[in-house]
Amino acid sequence: MKKCPDDERRELLLGNCAENGKLCMERCAQSMIAQIKEKAGTGKVLLALSGGVDSSVAAALLSSAIGRNLNCIFVDTGLMRKDEGDEVEKAFGGRELNFVRIDAEGRFLSKLAGITDPEAKRKIIGEEFIRVFEEEAGKIGAVDFLAQGTIYPDIIESGLDGAKLVKSHHNVGGMPKNIDFKEIIEPLRLLFKDEVRELGAVLGLPAHLVHRQPFPGPGLAIRVIGEVTKSKLDTLREADYIFRDEVAKAGLEHSINQYFAILTDINSVGVTAGARSYGGIVALRAVVTENFMEADWARLPYDLLNQTAQRITSEVDGVNRVVYDITGKPPGTVEWE
Ligand code: XMP
User: Fold this and answer.
1) If you take atom 18 of ligand 1, which residue's CA is the nearest one?
2) How far is CA 153 from the centre of its chain?
3) 141 Cβ partners below 8 Å, 6+ apart?
4) Where are the beta strands (DSSP E) in the chain?
5) Closest Cα to atom 9 of ligand 1
6) Across the strands, what pairs with 329?
7) Ligand 1 atom index nearest CA of 122
8) pLDDT band for position 164 (50/70/90)?
9) Residue 327 near residue 287, CB atoms below 8 Å
């Protein structure tokens, strides 16, 4: 029976990093940095940076601790939201670490060509990710440590005794097998998500990165229903950007837990510029939830929905209808695929 990490967690956070019983994130950051320095020494550390909150904060923490002994590989799958790849590069490109961005869009899109089944898409993306990562890691040579942005809920969800996975799809990529390393470093393994965000802010990461909403590993590939193509992804990116922009303008970014657009595989008849059109349908999804195991659809203001629909149908080529998903989880999942 493994020791419950809760004991270790309390010891670390409340023992060394508390001030008057309250967690002091500055002190916590210092203690974590010291622990990493001690463990890694002068060894080389390799991290897969996805641009999500966890791996970004892990990168910032590791770079503060070991600087240029950290190697970050950012696999740009081409399945990210508008401008996201550039934002990640901007946040890390200037830091004291070895940051490599791999443009792998072409590889992912050619593997996904003709694939419509959601699970097949997940599997292909997970496998391709590992392949690209391993190839790139091979160029760096042997490393001493492999770092991961695992956080406390990931450990709980994976089962403390190796019990059944609650959400196997969260681990689509699995672990790289062909990389030579001695040990794993998981610097965030004792933190909850809100603590990870707080730590990111203390380490100087930009607010938009630290407060980013969850984004699935397979990215927009599971928000383009059916076959994924570059042109469908571009259409979805524009619609999704407009929705996020309107949510931000309404000041609701932090009261909804996840919100995004989906490009359906249905066309419908509409009237565009006074003439009959036969165009795509975009669905909008927004949920409020505590743990993503259950979720309620967000009661977004009608004006916000109206403004979003008007902008999408007038600004995004090929889309002439917008619908809003009012399904809870269960029975619906958050993602459509
Ligand atoms: P579902 O759709 O299962 O989503 O209700 C719950 C949360 O998990 C995210 N999600 C994923 N995350 N890989 C991931 O890393 C996946 O394959 C995946 N599928 C869903 C989803 O965005 C939501 O936050």
Assistant:
1) 216
2) 15
3) none
4) 18-19, 22-23, 45-48, 70-76, 98-103, 145-147, 183-185, 258-272, 275-288, 296-297, 319-324
5) 216
6) 295
7) 17
8) very low
9) no
Q: How far is CA 77 from the centre of its chain?
A: 12
Contact by Cβ (8 Å): 250, 134: no
Pairing of strands 319-324, 70-76: unpaired
CA–CA distance, 118 with 335 (Å, rounded to integer):
11
Residues 225/127/218/103 CA torsion (nearest 10 deg): -110
> Checking phi first, is residue 222 left (phi over 0); if not, alpha (psi -120 to 50) or beta?
alpha
pLDDT digit string (tens) for 98-140?
999 999 999 999 999 999 999 999 999 999 999 999 999 999 9
Give the distance (Å) from ligand 1 centre to CA of residue 65: 31
Q: Is 122 in the pocket of ligand 1 (CB under 6 A)?
A: yes
- Three-state DSSP at 309 gives helix
Nearest CA, atom 10, ligand 1: 216
User: Tell me, what's the pLDDT at 5?
Assistant: 60
Kindly report, residue by residue over 61-92, the tens digit of the pLDDT.
999 999 999 999 999 999 999 999 999 999 88
The whole-number average pLDDT for the span 136-150 is 93
Report pTM: 0.89
Rounded distance from Cα 182 to ligand 1 centre (Å): 31
On average, the pLDDT of the chain sits at 90
The answer to whether residue 274 scores a pLDDT higher than 90 is: yes
- Pocket-testing residue among 334, 336, 337, ligand 1, by greatest number of atoms within 8 A of Cβ: 334
Q: Are strands 296-297 and 275-288 parallel, antiparallel or unpaired?
A: antiparallel
CA-to-CA distance for 36 and 62, rounded, in angstroms? Answer: 7
* Residue written as token pair 């916000």: 304
Q: Ligand 1 centroid vs 334 CA: distance in angstroms?
A: 7
Determine if ligand 1 sits within 6 Å of the CB of residue 5. no
Assess contact for 136 and 143: CB atoms under 8 A.
Answer: no
Atom of ligand 1 nearest to the CA of 336: 2
